[in-house]
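README, section 4: Worked example with a bound small molecule

Sections 1 through 3 covered apo chains. Here we extend the same pipeline to holo records, where the ligand is supplied as SMILES alongside the sequence. The molecule in this example is coenzyme A. Nothing else about the input changes; the structure line simply encodes the ligand pose together with the chain.
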Amino acid sequence: MPDFMETIYAKAAKNPKRVVLPEGNDDRTVEAAVKLTGLGAAKVTVLGDPDRINEIGKSKGLKTDGINIIDLANPPDIDSFAQEFYELRKSKGMTPEEAKKVMLRDVYYGAMMVRRGIVDTFVAGAVNTTADVSRAAIYLIGMKEGIKTLSSFFVMLLPDKSFGKEGVLFYSDGGFVIDPDAEQLSDIAVTTGDTYRELMGEEPRVALLSFSTKGSAKHSRIDKVTAALELAKKKDPTLMIDGELQGDAALIPAVGAKKAPGSDVAGKATVLIFPDLDSGNIAYKLTERLAKAEAYGPIYQGTKKPCSDLSRGCKASDIVNIAAINVVRLGKS
Ligand SMILES: CC(C)(COP(=O)(O)OP(=O)(O)OC[C@H]1O[C@@H](n2cnc3c(N)ncnc32)[C@H](O)[C@@H]1OP(=O)(O)O)[C@@H](O)C(=O)NCCC(=O)NCCS
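The generated complex, written as structure tokens:
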């Protein structure tokens, strides 16, 4: 079977999209832009200082031809971008001067390009903080119809192909929403189900995880999960979703059959929804280390157009992978 990322690159190359990488003054961004262009996975725009960007290319022996470079010292449409941003945020106390200052910052300018439909997605965060990347996503791209919560997902690739869809599992949220309430948890579940459809091209089986299965224990934390289940069913009546389920009841057919008989999710979950960021983050790191899984993410979800944050310690290949995943998601949306 072809490698998961090879399949993603091939799908992206069949239907490439316009990607902006706002942090063009950083070496990794330039490397990623060249790689994405070479793969034919995207038409890439980078923001920054053109001399610096070309210099990085030269010093690494990379050809930057075919990459659109926007000089952030004099970016097109800046006044109209700033005016639109001011209109969006004036009720929150933003002034026209502040709006222009913010709009001249790479990640906000890139997000406005997505908002305006000049490009299809942005990937940033190699240099910017999560707070700035997430605010740019929330303020400028905005949330999908019916979804209020920006969240993130991981694609986990396990060597043991008996789990999930031939070893592929989606985890959420291991990267963004710290302490979701029932409403936010239901958003996370429904959104991750959608993301699974976008990337895997089939229906997900979504497990809302807990330390209890179907009433085996009683606690307000379990009540939060069962409330999220009811909300999620209303938001997406077609979604195969169940909870509350323990990890083994979600993943192991014999345990699922015993603890949650008749469930169309228990024992065969492909999407795991964790009750909070503690459990989601711990689980993805343990799965990586103990099960020798590969993890791709966290990748944002819930916004009108895909976009994503990066870890500041990321490699150029992480930028390429996340951008290519977002290109494939766009192909389905
Ligand atoms: C998103 C974030 C930067 C916003 O913080 P902030 O600007 O200081 O202040 P607020 O919490 O008031 O949020 C600002 C806006 O973002 C919205 N917002 C916050 N979190 C959101 C989410 N998950 N989804 C959608 N909107 C969100 C708020 O509703 C608010 O909207 P408004 O200004 O239009 O009313 C902050 O909530 C954050 O850092 N979240 C990430 C949490 C985190 O650190 N996770 C772990 C990473 S490892």
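What to look for in the output: Residues 92, 130-131, 134-135, 138, 143, 149-150, 175-178 surround coenzyme A (CB under 6 Å). Strands lie at 17-21, 42-48, 68-71, 121-122, 151-157, 168-172, 205-209, 240-245, 271-273, 294-301.

Section 5 describes how to batch many such records.
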